[in-house]
UniProtKB/TrEMBL annotation:
Keywords for this protein: Metal-binding, Oxidoreductase, Zinc
TM helices/strands, residue ranges: none
InterPro entries associated with the record: ADH-like_C, ADH-like_N, ADH_Zn_CS, GroES-like_sf, NAD(P)-bd_dom_sf
Family that this chain belongs to: Belongs to the zinc-containing alcohol dehydrogenase family.
Name under which the protein is recorded: Alcohol dehydrogenase catalytic domain-containing protein
Cytoplasm in keyword set: no
Gene3D superfamilies assigned to the protein according to its UniProt record, in alphabetical order: Medium-chain alcohol dehydrogenases, catalytic domain, NAD(P)-binding Rossmann-like Domain
Annotated organism of origin: Actinomarinicola tropica
Cofactor(s) demanded: Zn(2+)
Length: 349
């Protein structure tokens, strides 16, 4: 089969690799029908995730068809259409039993495209198939469900639920890429009074308006602190969500927040950020971090299936599986191309 293989920072290739094989009785082999590229993949290609080594197949999101299952798999069978989650869960360790699947110590967590071969391939081995795949509801398209592999649960869990968004809150989202837009979608489920999207790209701010932001700020030419304080009687945001993963945006969130507010960091950071504890400690500011656990995936599947959440609107570009290099180029230049999520499909065209 062919797959996207990582060969060190700024070096990847669409090349021939061996087909995956069942290793454990809890595995499934899934034919990848639809997959995508994540901002985390771009961080990997920058060298920000040193655990990813030369020869690793990238990718941690897919919708596909089960081809083969191990002897211990009971919830899916060959022929089933499934969502492959970005998080694998053994289902037995302490963290899994507390629904903290991203912290799994039984062999799971974020492993696909990280510690084991991932989904940017024609086929993928999925460990712990019973607890790491989800049957796709009838009437829901592959690309809609694909958004539930990572970005929607990440924005919802690590941004909205960790940030404890409440009705009437003013929510500032720093970064209007796919994860920031996911946080905007999730925030609306809790009826905030205002959602402020902050970004450097006008195209992404325009997308943020379409996704539900009530105020947009281009911080290359406007002061987001002035904008947020103008909405809050000079107090600051109730919740500030960091959705970029660079020091400046995290530090901006700590300036935007009111006393007693919550900063929820979603972004994948490759460099240290300064924590001004000398200013924050006295202001009762709570800061949360997190890797997605995907415990919300069943809820989000119901919301998508009932048309309460339109997940397909994230998709801006379509490619065939063999067009991965073109798709990476478009996604990496999102500020120029307007890309939110690129989708690569086996049956494209």
């Amino acid at each position: 089969m062919r797959a996207v293989v990582y060969h060190g920072p700024d070096n990847k290739a669409w090349e021939e690799v061996p087909d995956p094989q069942l290793v454990d009785a809890t595995d499934a082999i899934v034919r990848v029908d639809t997959t995508t590229i994540c901002g985390t993949d771009l961080h990997i290609l920058k060298g920000d995730v040193p655990a990813v080594t030369d020869g690793r197949i990238l990718g941690h999101e897919a919708v596909g068809t089960v081809e083969e299952v191990g002897a211990a798999v009971t919830t899916v069978k060959p022929g089933d259409r499934v969502l492959v989650s970005c998080i694998s869960a053994c289902g037995r360790c302490r963290y899994c039993r507390e629904a903290q699947y991203g912290q799994c110590i039984g062999g799971g967590g974020w492993i696909l495209g990280h510690l084991i071969d991932g989904t940017q391939a024609e086929k993928v081995r999925v460990p712990f198939a019973d607890t790491s795949t989800y049957l796709v509801p009838e009437g829901v398209s592959d690309e809609q469900v694909l958004m539930l592999a990572d970005i929607l649960p990440t924005g919802y869990e690590v941004g909205i639920l960790n940030g404890q968004v409440q009705p009437g809150d003013v929510v500032a989202v720093v970064g209007a890429g796919p994860i920031g837009l996911s946080a905007i979608v999730g925030a609306q489920l809790f009826s905030p009074s205002a959602i402020v999207a902050i970004d450097l790209a006008d195209s992404r701010l325009e997308a943020a308006k379409q996704f539900g932001a009530t105020v947009t700020v281009n911080n290359s030419r406007e002061d987001p602190l002035t904008a947020v304080r103008g909405l809050t009687d000079d107090l600051g945001a109730d919740v500030a969500i960091e959705a970029v993963g660079v020091p400046d945006t995290f530090e901006l969130c700590t300036r935007l927040i009111r006393a007693g507010g919550r900063v929820a960091n979603i972004g994948v950071h490759g460099k240290p950020a300064t924590l001004h504890l000398e200013e924050l400690w006295i202001r009762n500011v709570a800061i949360t971090t997190g890797l997605v656990d995907t415990y919300s995936t069943p809820t989000l599947l119901r919301l998508v299936a009932s048309h309460r959440v339109d997940a397909g609107r994230f998709v801006t570009h379509h490619f065939g599986l063999e067009e991965f290099m073109d798709a990476y180029d478009v996604f990496a230049r999102a500020g120029e191309t307007g890309a939110l999520k690129v989708v690569l499909s086996r049956n494209r065209g």
